[in-house]
Amino acid sequence: MSIKKLSTRLQAVADLVQGDIIADIGSDHAYLPAWLALNNKIKKAYAVDISAACVERIKANLEKFGISRDIIEPVLSDGFAELEHIKLTDIIIAGMGGENIAGIMGGIKNPAGINFILQPNTKTEFLKNYLLNNNYRILDEVRVDEKRRYYNIMRAVYGYILF
């Protein structure tokens, strides 16, 4: 079985992925990393969730989609805590409130060189202010309409960009 199409929101998030080793924080069902893997957009993903039930759902979906845990690794973790030792190209935090996303980002010890793809469901301005006040730069921002609800999706990096 495969994932033929992502929702409009998740496709917009997927379109902002820049590298090939990602972490999807709050993965829930792992549809996004599964789609990226099945479409050869990434080499490795960590599907992270704080809920043991969600991690079990991730494992079941990986089996259903025929994806090896060598490619997508389910991780039970509160935010980024279990991934500090891993070199990632992209971190995706989508589908939660802007304050929660900012809290997760505040726990990342070394954000330099990582592409952050952020999609808050609420408190978008709070998240933008957090980014700007903590040395992040928003490089891209898209807004999508899905089922009469608008979502802002940002791509940000830590530090200054030299042109």
Q: If you had to describe this structure to a student in words, what would you say it looks like?
A:
The chain is of the alpha/beta class and about 160 residues long. The chain has one domain: Vaccinia Virus protein VP39 (Rossmann fold), CATH 3.40.50.150. It contains 5 helices and 7 strands, in the order αβαβαββαβαββ. The protein has helices at about 10-15, 30-40, 50-65, 100-105, 125-135; strands at about 20-25, 45-50, 70-75, 90-95, 115-120, 135-145, 150-160. Helix 4 runs parallel beside helix 5. The longest helix has 14 residues, at about 50-65. The protein starts with 7 loop residues before the first helix and ends in a 5-residue tail after the last strand.
The Rg value, from CA coordinates, equals 15 Å
CATH class: Alpha Beta
Write down the domain tally: 1
**Spatial strand arrangement across the major sheet:** 3-2-1-4-5-7-6
The beta-strand count equals 7
**For this structure, what is the CATH homologous superfamily?**
Vaccinia Virus protein VP39
Content of β-strand? 25-35%
Helices, by number, come to 5
What is the third-level CATH name, the topology? Rossmann fold
Structural class: alpha/beta
H/E series: HEHEHEEHEHEE
Shape: globular
pLDDT average, as an integer? 94
Sheet with most strands: 7 strands, mixed
